[in-house]
Amino acid sequence: xxxxxxDYNYRMASGPSTASKIVNVDDFGAKADGxxxxxxxxxxxxxxxxxxxxxxxxxxxxxxIYHLKPLTFSGPCQSDIIFKIHGTVKASNKMEDYGEDTxxxxxxxxxxxxxxxxxxxxxxxxxxWWINSCKFDKTKPCKHAPTAVTFYECxxxxxxxxxxxxxxxxxxxxxxxVNVRILKLKVTAPGNSPNTDGIHVTGTQNIRxxxxxxxxxxxxxxxxxxxxxxxxxxxxxxxxxxxxxxxLGAGHSEAQVSNVFVNRATFSGTTxxxxxxxxxxxxxxxxxxxxxxxxxxxxxxPIIVDQNYCDQDDPCxxxxxxxxxxxxxxxxxxxxxxxxxAMKFDCSNTFPCQKIMLQNVxxxxxxxxxxxxxxxxxxxxxxxxxxxxCSTTSIL
Length: 396
Description:
The protein has helices at about 40-50, 125-130, and strands at about 20-25, 55-60, 65-70, 70-75, 80-85, 90, 105-110, 110-115, 120-125, 145-150, 155-160, 165, 170-175, 180-185, 185-190, 200, 205-215, 220-225, 225-235, 245-250, 255-270, 270-280, 285-300, 300-310, 325-335, 340-345, 355-365, 370-375, 385, 390-395. It is elongated, with a radius of gyration of 22 Å. Helix 1 links the parallel strand 1 and strand 2. It contains 2 helices and 30 strands. By secondary structure, it is mainly beta.
């Protein structure tokens, strides 16, 4: 069984050609003095770059901090753009600056052949949002907080060599994009910062995430409905909640995720390692997924499939429908679990997990004692060189 089918022909443009025009935000009035808002200068610089008839490089200079209110950089543009962030862009810390749209800070919309890189910093300045989150303070109402950077309906996109830190909520969201490369990102936020996913992939096809270090308060990488042909390689994760497919099927919705390949990842002190989570009552599928060559270091739930996911205080009622989970391979996974149950398959009564295969999976407790596995409603052959083996089992 192979996860990535023959249609996984990742076709990425070779990237924008050498830029013949330079656009510098300082030339459009950016002050970078820590007091004046530089949003208008960035808007003017983008308008100039987007209307250029030749390839263009938009530069955010080094050794400067630019304070920005919410911005949308819209296409389509006349030519390829390299957006070089050498310095720091920092979000406003005034919640009122976001107006009615509290879900976005920086948005790139409908742009083709875009590179965002430069070695600089994107700082979401998120603490004011964290302390007002219901997950941080249960006396607060539950509200959305902005995603730091959203790429929406972009094609042939490269994001590389940047440090994203302290997002208001998610750090990067790749939404409804095609042909994406994410390379050599550093993503950091405190381990107790709520909902600060590192890289969120939704409705996107043909995306490769490589050589990233992600240390946040939520999923290092989250992959949700509509995503197909997703590859994550050489990922360092922790703290955080691991790499998650889902949640899927919330609110009786239909979800589809397929052809996911996670290769060479290290999880250190995370809540989860590799996780698939689906709500009861949903429909659709999560299928053709490979997790391989993975090291777990003191991970609470190294391997977990939860078809009864319930992210609320009140118990979730039993439902008959479920998102189907099938064709999942776990291969060459080693390391330690901080809990006794290192492997958990909590699958649906009506739609059990199908064609689950473990090969060369050895997990022990942190004290190097034999761990346990719990396997409910899962179709999985018992193979040698797998530890722990299922102890609580209901195979249908």
